[in-house]
Amino acid sequence: xxxxxxxxxxxxxxxxxxxxxxxxxxxxxxxxxxxxxxxxxxxxxxxxxxxxxxxxxxxxxxxxxxxxxxxxxxxxxxxxxxxxxxxxxxxxxxxxxxxxxxxxxxxxxxxxxxxxxxxxxxxxxxxxxxxxxxxxxxxxxxxxxxxxxxxxxxxxxxxxxxxxxxxxxxxxxxxxxxxxxxxxxxxxxxxxxxxxxxxxxxxxxxxxxxxxxxxxxxxxxxxxxxxxxxxxxxxxxxxxxxxxxxxxxxxxxxxxxxxxxxxxxxxxxxxxxxxxxxxxxxxxxxxxxxxxxxxxxxxxxxxxxxxxxxx
Length: 311
Known about the structure:
Number of strands: 17
Strand content: 25-35%
Shape: elongated
Order of helices and strands: HHEHEHEEEEEEEEEEEEHEEHEH
Structural class: alpha/beta
Distance between the termini: 83 Å
């Protein structure tokens, strides 16, 4: 080497931009992307090859199509993708699992429910804290009737599902505090119960024609019951209730079933009007709301509600 000249430095330059962030931050960021996009980041660089497997959120939208060209995938492709996604990430901790779907049933064999239950169980094994299941067809997608058991779940959001007895027993989720239920059916659910639940929202749900669903949530702080069809749910006493919103939308049904809380029904056995007997303890809707510090009660016809929406 000629005198007076120095060798060029071969030390690698410090990472800049997003590459300067630690893996844990990148995994958190990937958790906000739709899962297919998060998986595609594996081709960005060698460092990114496996980051998606540890993303703190899974957000999957299963919109079914014919599977040709760039259109929506077929049910089989959806099932294969989600199955492989969950398999490859193993038991990496999961903060959020959101699933929007209509069907996964390729052959019409009615295997949708067991498929969904399997994915939910895998998410629970990953210690998921927030779980959202949204059926975009809103036609009463039937879940397998088995209890949900999780020591980590704090928030559960359900839309367009047919909920059964065992699933609605949340005693196996001791940390569950937020429950959001929209456009779900409770034909065969006698009770919704949780000792830990603090915030409950039920919107546009369909209840049984023959008996009322009893809601037992003694730790509840806030309640939103916005519209229902057929017999009103019956609330057990909620001593910690601070805020409640109840809106009743009356429909001119020809079925002969009372669908409000009026107490004007001639049938003394009507749970909607006169409450339900639970052992030796009589639980009525208004008794359950009596502890609320702030209470909003709204009664309107279906025509009024539709006019409000269109304005």
